[in-house]
Amino acid sequence: MKQLDEATLDAVDARLGARLAELRAERGWSLGELAERSGVSKSTLSRAERAEISPTASLLNRLCNVYGRTMSQLLSEVESEPALLLRAAEQPVWQDRASGFVRRSVSPPHAGLRGELVEGRLAVGADLAYDRPPVPGLEQHIWVLEGALDVTAHEVTHHLETGDCLRLRVWGPTRFRCAGDVDVRYVLAVVMP
């Protein structure tokens, strides 16, 4: 998976911040109202909208929940319209620099389609916790390609090794943790309810 340079990451953060501000404005919400709905502080929301910070996966997940979209849908809104055929070099990559999570949108959301494919990579020691799904009842299929991954959902932790696949609908908090001494790489198939 290619790594993004700082200039590319900053440009994505700027477009993402602008889109987050647009979504809030479309609803007529103040930063205070969005803070109440998302559980994220007004100062963090403001800094994310102005691209002063690179939002974490957890922060984006909270905002996606409020706006009723998946993270892939949100990220696709700041990228160009995906073609039907996406070559590996053209697949959008986003990085949560704080957690060591890298996601590649292998098959981004597309009008008329309910499913999408995401390649995730968690560095050794990386631990991502989401307090809620972006869309309640979201169907996920998690297939580990390399390494080991612990996925906690419905208060149960599932340990996945290379080749294992976990299928579930997400209603509450989830956690993804690199469970080995090498990076874990996995495919996440997401299907809207």
Task: Characterize the structure shown.
The protein is α+β, with helices and mostly antiparallel strands and 193 residues long. The protein has five helices and ten strands; from the N terminus they run H-H-H-H-H-E-E-E-E-E-E-E-E-E-E. Strands 1-2-3-10-5-8 form a six-stranded antiparallel sheet, with no helix packed on it. It has a four-stranded antiparallel sheet with strand order 4-9-6-7. Strand 6 (149-153) and strand 7 form a beta hairpin. Helix 2 (31-38) packs across helix 3 (42-49). The radius of gyration is 16 Å and the shape is globular. The model has no long low-confidence stretch (mean pLDDT 89).
**Strand portion:** 25-35%
Adjacency order of strands in the biggest sheet = 1-2-3-10-5-8
Mean pLDDT: 89
User: Which regions are unreliable across 5 or more consecutive residues at pLDDT < 50?
Assistant: none
Calculate the terminal CA-CA distance, rounded to whole Å. 29 Å
User: Given the helix and strand composition, which structural class is it?
Assistant: alpha+beta
How would you spell out the order of helices and strands?
HHHHHEEEEEEEEEE
| Biggest sheet details | 6 strands, antiparallel
Overall body shape: globular
Please give the share of residues in helix.
25-40%
Rg over CA atoms: 16 Å
User: How many H/I helical runs?
Assistant: 5
Q: Give the strand tally.
A: 10
